[in-house]
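Hey, weird one. I pasted the UPF0482 protein OO7_09517 sequence into the form twice and got a warning about non-standard characters only the second time. First submission, copied straight from the form history:
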Amino acid sequence: MNLSSKFIKHRLAALCFCLPLIGITAAQAANVTCSPGSTCVTSGNVDSALTKEQARQEKQQWDETNKLRSKVNSRTEKEFDKIDAAFDNKDACEKSLNLNAYWEPNTKRCLDVNTGRPLANP
C-alpha cells in the first residue's frame, strides 16, 4: 500500500465520521424557534398554533400601544391649543383700543381695569 492510498483512506474515514455530525447541527439549526426581536427566515408554510398565538399577542400589544400613543398625542395637542389660544388672547388684549383692558398673566385673561371682569372682545 503506497502513501497516497493510505492518505486517501484516512481522509475518507474522517469524512465519513464528520458528515453525520454536520447533518445533526443543520437539523438542530432548522428547529430553532424565533425569539421576539430576532430576525428569522423560514421557507415553506409555517402555520402552527404557536406562531398564530404569538402573532395575535403582538397585534394586541401593538393596538394597545397605538391607543396609548394617540391618547398622549391628543392630550399634548389640547395643551398646545390652550397655550396657543392664550398667546392669541394676550396679543389681542395688548393691541386692544380699549384703554381699560389689561392682561392678567396668572389667569391668562383680558380684564377690565375698573371692574376686574373679563372682557369678551377687547
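That's the output from the first submission. The warning seems to come from a hidden character in my clipboard, not from the data itself. The chain has a mean pLDDT of 79.
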